[in-house]
Write a structure and sequence with these properties.
7-stranded antiparallel beta sheet; 5-stranded parallel beta sheet; 24 helices; 14 strands; elongated; TMOD; cytoskeleton
Length: 637
């Protein structure tokens, strides 16, 4: 039409031959354009406006050629004909409603009403559609279809699965109706719906397959793959599917290749995919194409970053490049999402494994202490009292030794005081026999060590009565354990620390602590995805060693190696002194740097980081920041 408008005046005869004569053709087109009503979604479609303007131009040309009267008459006839057709359609609907009301009034059965409707449908079908309906009637069993439609729960359809699959070769309609009803009931076991290369009947022939499936996809929450390639999917059902895509949130792959779909419907499908954030792949080859459809798919790719694969023929070079660039962006965004999900999953697994770290038990809580019988508690109290008595005797002897020497005339007076200055067997034994730390399950008892350190230091001269004190001290050491002393300390008001006092404590450096656990370590350089790595650290004999996970440690013997097997890095505090600094802004972060400003050779696994300051984050760690810092500072003493 636009081509004829652009012709010169010399070729107007050709326009008159096409639209002239009785002018019925142009009048029919103009009547349809005037009567059409667009939906809200297509109200801004420019094609209707363009066609109307072209019709107006042709009408003016025909009027200039003297055909204005014929054009006016043809327009009136076409409008009257269009009105009659519309009223006839309304009349048929009214007659059908009257038949239904009369059937209900006369008590007709539902079967008779359905028969009347079937007859009316058959009358409306074209000869080709009637032939297809007759062929389809041989593809299903009415009794089986009734049993399928009677199922209201997905579990009830499982009883018909074997029968439906067995009849697939001979009665394809049974299997198709059974599958569509599973989608309608939202069967949780139906994840992949595959009708590829299986010809479905048209919607006006069998409404229980393609129309029902298109409507069911709106509320289905389990189907992830809908494969409808080369299945005779008609334009009407595809339009319904386009509306369903806007509400579906589970479909990931949609294939509608090689089906009878018009450009306008395909454009609606593209608009539906733009709001479906779950869809990842769409294939619609061998259907329809056009500039408006291509623009719709480009908008869908931009608004839906989860759509990473598009099967659609694009002939325009510009749109081809734009679509390819947007697909690259979407695939890159999907890759980042997968990596982030993997990182979160690994962090969760590491957090769960941290509670059961190899070779590192968590300290027991107060409510997890083993219960002790009253007899055992009484025995511990008596043993601790014996130790305190020995301690008292040793203290008295030390006071006498430190006292100033008396004149020679006073020994007689001193001997009369007897019990206060006489050397007891306990003192002699305590001086002769060196104190041993109290053992409890191969671990030193803090109470026994504190009690026996000072006697060893104070009593170096021989005593007169070693046997009784030595046997008492030995018996006390054999009976007392670390956990028992802890109970005794809380139960007996006069504890050993009360007798030791502040002055008796030694100022010897604390031993180096060994510690294990997970920490976040800041990466040396800025990265695209993350700057903190989740690593497993072991502080052993003045070295801080880390692996990717605790399961990567082959054996505890590797701690003594210069470069432990599989470790990601280490810091040797025996080679270089370090400064441990807490972060003032974040209560979970601390840093380690060299005191000299540069790590000495052999301090690090990778000496290219000789001037690096290491930063650590105790988030989700089994230890607090203070515990890690105290353990690290113990290596600097």
């Amino acid at each position: 039409m636009n081509m004829m408008v652009t012709k010169t005046s010399e070729n107007r005869q050709q326009l008159a031959d096409i639209f002239g004569g009785d002018c019925s053709r142009i009048a029919r087109i103009r009547t349809v354009l005037d009567e059409v009503v667009l939906s809200d979604m297509n109200c801004n479609d420019q094609r209707v406006r363009t066609c109307t303007e072209a019709c107006e131009t042709i009408e003016k040309v025909l009027e200039d050629m003297g055909l204005g009267w014929c054009l006016k008459k043809a327009q009136d006839e076409q409008k009257a004909s269009f009105t009659r057709r519309r009223s006839s359609i309304d009349r048929e609907d009214l007659q059908k409603a009257v038949l239904q009301i009369e059937a209900q009034a006369t008590g007709a059965t539902e079967a008779e009403v359905e028969a009347v409707q079937v007859v009316e449908v058959e009358e409306r079908l074209s000869p080709k559609a009637k032939k297809a309906a007759d062929a389809w009637a041989e593809c299903y069993d009415e009794d089986f279809v009734k049993r399928v439609l009677a199922c209201q729960q997905p579990g009830e359809l499982q009883a018909l699965e074997s029968e439906a699959k067995a009849s697939k070769a001979t009665k394809l309609g049974n299997w198709m109706i059974w599958m569509v009803h599973r989608a309608h009931l939202d069967d949780p076991t139906l994840v992949k719906f595959d009708f590829t290369n299986l010809k479905m009947p048209e919607g006006n022939v069998e409404p229980l397959i393609s129309p029902k499936l298109a409507v069911a996809m709106e509320s289905n929450t389990h189907i992830e793959h809908l494969l409808m390639g080369c299945t005779n999917l008609q334009d009407q059902e595809a339009a319904i599917l386009a509306v369903s895509l806007r509400s579906n949130r589970s479909l990931k792959v949609l294939n509608i290749d090689t089906n009878v779909i018009q450009p306008l419907t395909l454009e609606s499908i593209a608009n539906g995919t733009s709001v479906n954030e779950a869809l990842q792949e769409l294939r619609c080859n061998n259907t329809a194409n056009g500039r408006l459809v291509t623009e719709a798919f480009l908008r869908a790719l931009k608004s839906n970053p989860s759509l990473c694969k598009l099967g659609y023929p694009v002939t325009d070079a510009y749109f081809r490049g734009e679509i390819d660039k947007q697909l690259t962006r979407n695939n890159d965004a999907a890759r980042k999402r997968r990596l982030e999900e993997k990182r979160r999953k690994e962090a969760g697994e590491a957090e769960s494994e941290a509670a059961e770290t190899k070779g590192y038990p968590h300290p027991p809580k107060a409510d997890q202490q083993p219960e002790r019988s009253p007899e055992r508690i009484k025995e511990v109290k008596e043993t601790v009292k014996e130790v305190l008595e020995v301690k008292e005797v040793i203290t008295k002897k030390q006071e006498l030794e430190e006292a100033p020497q008396l004149p020679e005339a006073e020994p007689a007076m001193l001997s009369e005081a007897g019990p206060t200055t006489e050397t007891s067997p306990e003192l002699k034994e305590a001086a002769v026999e060196p104190a041993e730390p109290c053992q409890a399950e191969a671990e030193p008892s803090p109470v026994a060590e504190d009690e026996l350190k000072e006697p060893q230091a104070m009593t170096e001269e021989p005593c007169d009565e070693p046997e009784r004190a030595g046997s008492s001290l030995k018996e006390a050491r054999s009976k007392v354990s670390a956990s028992d002393c802890e109970h005794a300390r809380t139960d007996i008001p006069g504890t050993i620390e009360a007798f030791l006092g502040e002055g008796s404590k030694t100022s010897a450096p604390l031993p180096m602590r060994n510690l294990r656990g997970y920490l976040y370590k800041k990466s040396p350089g800025a990265r695209l995805l993350k700057s903190w790595d989740w690593r497993y650290f072991v502080l052993h004999e003045g070295r801080l060693i880390w692996w990717r996970r605790d399961r990567d440690i082959p054996a505890d013997e590797v701690f003594s190696h210069a470069d432990p097997e599989g470790c990601k890095g280490f810091i040797n505090f025996k080679v270089s002194r370090a400064r441990i600094m807490p972060d003032e802004q974040n209560p979970l972060v601390f840093a380690i740097e060299s005191v000299d400003g540069k790590w000495q050779e052999g301090s690090l696994k990778d000496m290219s980081d000789a001037q690096r300051t290491f930063e650590f984050d105790c988030t989700k760690s089994a230890h607090t920041r203070e515990e890690w810092m105290d353990a690290l500072r113990s290596t600097q003493q």
